[in-house]
Amino acid sequence: MNGVDPSRERWKYLDNFLNKPGPTSDPLWVPGEETTTALETSKVLSGDVYSHGSVTLMNLCTDRNTRGAGGLGCEILKNLALSGFKDIYVIDMDVSNLNRQFLFREADVGKSKAEVAAAFVERRVEGVKITPYNGKIQDKDEDYYMQFKMVICGLDSIEARRWINATLVDMVDMDNPESLKPLIDGGTEGFKGQARVILPTMNSCIECQLDMHAPRAAVPLCTLATIPRQPAHCIEWAHIIAWEEHRKDVLLDTDNPEHITWLYQKALARAQEFNIPGVTYSLTHGVVKNIIPAIASTNAIIAASCCNEAFKIATSCNPWLSNYMMYSGDEGIYTYTFETEQKDDCPVCGNLARNLTVNPNMALQEFIDSLGERAEAQLKKPTIRSEAKSLFSQFPLSLREQTAPNLPKKLSELVVDGEEIAVSDPAFSISFKYKLIFRA
Questions:
Q1: Relative to the CA of 372, which of 35, 86, 117, 266 has its CA 20 to 30 Å away?
Q2: What is the maximum alpha-carbon separation in the chain?
Q3: Catalytic site includes residue 222
Q4: Catalytic residue among 61, 74, 222, 306
């Protein structure tokens, strides 16, 4: 074995990083058995972010706006296990409806993705323990997330990212260093991708960078309502108009198969009315969630970057990313690393209300609609309260009816220039503070 411990034969290349310092290692870093033990020991919650206990990986097969054809999460799970992590938790709410991820086989269709992937990797990598959970990340409370040393995201929407980001920021207790859980976020969109490292409250969080993920351009409502020309127009009609007409008291959950099926059936009937072919369940799911087919090579590169950062945080063998890496592979291979700045007016990690420039003659209904389109807000079901009173409430129905008369009123009739408002949304556990700046 050329002097290699037989029990470490599989990890001999990994040990090159763990047993000797490199040119960028911290002078105080101690290589060797202590570092290896810190990496492998399960459920060890140390007093700072340099040491490692457990890792949680969320969503196996999809990432931001990407169908799980290649599986960013599957790549991350495989990489973590082969990087020496021994205690991995996986959260995914889906069942296997594809067999194209390399951790799944045709026989796995219909089974829990989390459970199937966990069992597959455990069979291939001796000694690793993977605990799957088939459900939403929102099902778990802060006590659950407190047990981990870091969180790695490959989530399927901006909303889910914002939720876990706000949760981890809210968990931080300045008197308890163990409450700070690094968040490693990876995402791909076709041939483009990104990886970032977030230390909640210490550097720029996902909400600080929200305007980098501007919502897609909307199709004019007149097109959806009167002259649809494409399958996507029929689906958007079902999503925006039909749902509001028939099920406005039910919060649309794009991860709920029953909700997607309802939208698909409505869109299909609409398409048949206008002789538009091409509406399918898969397309409906894709349009509603803004899904773009994944590229396997992009998934592999971003997953490698995320796990590289996890390894560096767990072992302190080298400095980790500070704090954003972007990748583009559509014309050659290009990467760029830069540091995004923490914003004082961030609704999650900042202390100040964020300025929103608005037209004082804008109706409250128009303002509410704009919150879903503004890159810095992206709130789809906002409830709004001024410093003096509730302006509009989405729920419950009785309060919605009570505040509905405010909808046609001008903002200048409801608030004054420079007044702060609190905006909540059922997708998030926090309220967002904004200062309205009037500008005609």
A1: 266
A2: 81
A3: yes
A4: 222
